[in-house]
Amino acid sequence: MMISFAVAIVPMAKPSFIRAEQPLAPDLAADCTALGRGAASRCRDIVFVVNPRGANGKTGKEWKKLLPHLRSRLGSDFNICESLTSGPCHAIDITREAIREGADAVIAVGGDGTLHEVVNGFFWGGKPVSNNDQSVHTTALGLIPLGTGSDFARTFGRKNDPHDAIERISKVSAKAGYYASRYKKFGKLCYVIGALQAFFGHYNQDLKIKVDNGGWDVYPLVTALCIGNAKYFGGGMKITPNGHPSSGTFEVVVLQDFKWYEFVLNLHKLYNGTHLSVKNVSSRSASSIEIEEIVSTNSIFVQSDGEYLGFLPKKFSILPGAIEMIC
Ligand SMILES: Nc1ncnc2c1ncn2[C@@H]1O[C@H](COP(=O)(O)OP(=O)(O)OP(=O)(O)O)[C@@H](O)[C@H]1O
């Protein structure tokens, strides 16, 4: 069985962010290449955190093609700092360092995994990271979606066109400055293949769920539980169709006693968001949720934005308005 939750981010003015109550990543030694090379004072206004290995390496290639356009579009308003990630979790460190150094905006360039890491770089020990001089200046978050799925951007109705993303960044540039695996070679189909493969050796599990500090509800034979403050995951599956980053809540969708053939038969509904009317599918909205096994096996896998997040039990909660996002 798998628990997944779509994203942990934000839109417009003061949106919300989903937080896992346990640390999302270790605080690795800060070795942000771009800022650590002594270029911080030159490059700290807008930092592009680029995952060159995203989408099977396509992100790196697309980014190289995009750079000249980006420089000509934003170069007059911003000092542009490009920082390539060297491996998993590096984006977290780069982001934290950029915020501490007073960056006006940090832009994730890659897929949902990269965005996930950048968002987590905005926090440390459950609290927002602040810049070194402790001023009211804040750092905005932006996204150039160049990953395999890039599902978060879909919630905003985006076609995941990087040029559109640059236009959005250029339009709000003044404001930003002010406010202060494995099947990826199959592209988006990798998510369907991965989900089908997950059914083999899969077993349903009885769970208990506590929503918004209420009582515990028992959910027998859970096949999958998905939490989202955005609508999409799995390369365009509208899994939490009522989720939206500005709602201040997330949507919880539970699939119970689902067979692999039901997954196949209902695949089109998962993609267009009409699966909530299917038998054994339920949905509710929440601002915090605790999930535990009825009988503990410590084997219920949790993933977030395609990233491994450990095993149950887990608690997730919304942090309303935690990050200013360029969108
Ligand atoms: N230099 C690197 N080499 C290998 N892996 C990296 C590197 N930099 C970052 N990563 C890891 O790659 C993961 C996936 O990247 P990303 O989300 O950008 O692309 P994707 O998986 O193709 O897109 P999506 O998540 O939208 O499907 C990130 O979460 C990160 O942990």
TrEMBL record:
For this record, the Gene Ontology CC terms, alphabetical, are: membrane
The chain positions of domain DAGKc read 41-185
Keywords of the record, alphabetical order, are: ATP-binding, Kinase, Nucleotide-binding, Transferase
- From the UniProt record, give one GO term of the biological process aspect: sphingolipid metabolic process
List the SMART domains hit by this protein, alphabetically.
Answer: DAGKc
**Could you tell me which InterPro entries the record lists for this protein?**
ATP-NAD_kinase_N, Diacylglycerol_kinase_cat_dom, Lipid_Phosphate_FormReg, NAD/diacylglycerol_kinase_sf, YegS/DAGK_C
Q: Does the keyword Protein biosynthesis apply?
A: no
Q: Which GO terms describe its molecular function?
A: ATP binding; kinase activity
Tell me the SUPFAM superfamilies matching this sequence.
NAD kinase/diacylglycerol kinase-like
Keyword field contains Transferase: yes
Can you name this protein? Answer: Sphingoid long-chain bases kinase 2, mitochondrial
What's the gene?
Answer: LCKB2_1
